[in-house]
Amino acid sequence: MKEHSFSVQLKSKDHVTNISMSEKSGEAVLLEGILGELEGLEIIEEAVLRITGTNGTLMIDLTEDELRDMISKKKGAENDVD
After folding, report:
1. pTM reported for the whole predicted model
2. pLDDT at residue 26 in the model
């Protein structure tokens, strides 16, 4: 299974609403913020999903095919429940 990396860049620390990190190794880390009004969504070089908002940018290494597969799986699971 491929691991995916991500990055978040916000224009100001004022847009960060929560960072929670334990001193203990292996415990969950929480990053929350306000991306703002969405301005764009694009796939860069067929390998990175970039979501741009008025307050910053979220990027994840995810191909368009992987994104479509995940959406299809989600829709399939929702239809199984009905």
Report:
1. 0.79
2. 86
Distance CA 52, CA 24 (A): 33
Let me know: does 28 contact 22? Beta carbons within 8 Å. Answer: yes
3-state secondary structure of 51: strand
Torsion of CA 29, 56, 15, 34, to 10 degrees: -70
Reported as type and span, the H/E element at residue 72 is helix 64-81
8 Å CB contact between 49 and 67? yes
At residue 77, the 3 state secondary structure works out as: helix
Taking 50 as the pLDDT cut, the residues of the chain under it are none
CA pseudo-torsion sign 72, 61, 64, 42: positive
